[in-house]
Design a protein that fits this description.
Elements (H helix, E strand, L loop, with lengths): L4 E2 L9 H10 L18 H18 L5 E6 L2 H13 L5 E6 L2 H10 L4 E7 L23 E3 L2 E2 L4 E2 L11 E4 L16 E5 L10 E6 H4 L12 H6 L9 H16 L2 H23 L15 E4 L7 H10 L2 E2 L10 E4 L6 H18 L1
Parallel strand pairs: 1-12, 3-4, 3-5, 5-8, 8-9
Antiparallel strand pairs: 2-10, 6-7, 9-10, 11-13
The structure holds pyridoxal-5'-phosphate.
The site of pyridoxal-5'-phosphate has 12 residues, from α3.
């Protein structure tokens, strides 16, 4: 077996213990005579799995009772459209704070479905910062305020929840959900594609405050309606049963690790280990303003781009996987999601030190 240290941005590393458990249960689930993937989503076995996953997620995030949790398909990208479709009128303004490539995409996808207004943008800093809250141009009558708490590509993260008054706050938490405790009551809607911190791809979790369900128009296709999905416990049609099951295993694993408070400590330490080394190295560089650096995705560059190829080749040989940066930024990126251990970060730093010594 040669599983490496996996720094993939997504689909990303999953806890080995969870993969082993899924492997052990793959052929037959809990004495049922069949794999969990081979049974009806409406049967008692899968309903049990689905309900336990939701209950565990609610416990981990302390989700208040007046929020619905939906397990949907279409990824975070579909939510870029589904959210304005459901909770804004077409002629209504919706405010967007743009701090990177994913928030840009959310603006573009939403533009045909509501009057999307860019309230603030850090584009002028090449998305290495977050615009100060007092400069945001917000409309108290906006349908909602959308932001991206963690920008996966450039590694920029909000470490506080912005205050937007009574307008519902909507957050794309794809690459940061479950990395630390969260006050869900501050949000109208949270969504997250699964393939970073929740489980395998093909699943998106939506946490929506119940009063917003009343906004869902009756004249959109049922399959896009949050109200219909909520009324049908996310089983309007066949859900991604394997993704939902595996997410449930991840939630149990997180609880066994000590929950999100324990993950916060680990994630903070992992990120600090790498940032401290990068900043002190005199060789590698991270361009992001220190106060908004991401705990989950850490981009870094080498002194010259000619060193990228040897860095990638040698790191791969050393069992350090998927360090190539996003094509929009170049350089490297290490994603340190929940399933990435301190051991992996230490191995990366050890390799980076050796590489800098040999090529510096
Ligand atoms: C990965 C990611 C997405 C895209 O998710 P898909 O499931 O591929 O649609 C959107 N937003 C953020 C912040 C991401 O990290």
């Amino acid at each position: 077996m040669s599983r490496g240290h996996n720094f993939s941005a997504g689909p990303a590393a999953l806890p080995e213990a969870v993969l082993r458990q899924a492997q052990a249960e793959f052929l037959e689930w809990d004495g049922s005579g069949a794999s969990i993937m081979e049974v009806s989503h409406r049967g008692k076995d899968f309903i049990g799995v689905a309900e336990a996953a939701e209950a565990d997620l609610r416990e981990l995030l302390a989700i208040p009772a007046n929020y619905k949790v939906l397990f949907l398909q279409g990824g975070a990208t579909q939510q870029f459209a589904q959210i304005p479709m459901n909770i804004a009128r077409r002629d209504q303004r919706a405010d967007y704070v743009v701090t990177g490539d994913w928030s840009e995409k959310a603006v573009r996808e939403g533009a045909t479905l509501a009057r999307i207004h860019v309230s603030a943008s850090s584009q002028s800093t090449n998305y290495t910062s977050i615009p100060a809250r007092d400069g945001w141009d917000l409309d108290p009558n906006a349908a909602y305020v959308h932001y991206t708490p963690n920008e996966t590509i450039r590694g920029v993260e909000f470490h506080d929840i912005p205050d937007v008054g009574d307008v519902p706050l909507v957050a794309d938490m794809s690459s940061t959900i479950l990395s630390r405790p969260l006050d869900v009551s501050r949000f109208g809607l949270i969504y997250a594609g699964a393939q970073k911190n929740i489980g395998p791809s093909g699943l998106v979790v939506v946490i929506i405050r119940e009063d917003l369900l009343a906004r869902c128009p009756k004249d959109i296709p049922r399959i896009f309606s949050f109200a219909e999905h909520a009324a049908n416990s996310s089983m309007l049609n066949t859900p991604n049963t394997f993704g939902w099951y595996l997410a449930g295993l991840i939630f149990k694993w997180l609880k066994a690790q000590g929950g999100l408070a324990a993950m916060e400590v680990r994630n903070r330490t992992k990120a600090q280990t790498l940032y401290d080394y990068i900043d002190g190295s005199g060789f590698y560089r991270n361009p992001v303003e220190v106060s908004v650096r991401s705990w989950m995705n850490i981009p870094f560059t080498l002194p010259t781009t000619e060193l990228d190829a040897p860095f990638l080749r040698e790191s791969q040989q050393a069992g350090l996987l998927a360090l190539k940066g996003h094509k929009l930024v170049g350089g490297m990126r290490a994603s340190l999601y929940n399933a990435v251990n301190q051991d992996s970060v230490d191995a990366l730093v050890c390799f980076m030190k050796d590489f800098a010594r040999r090529y510096g």
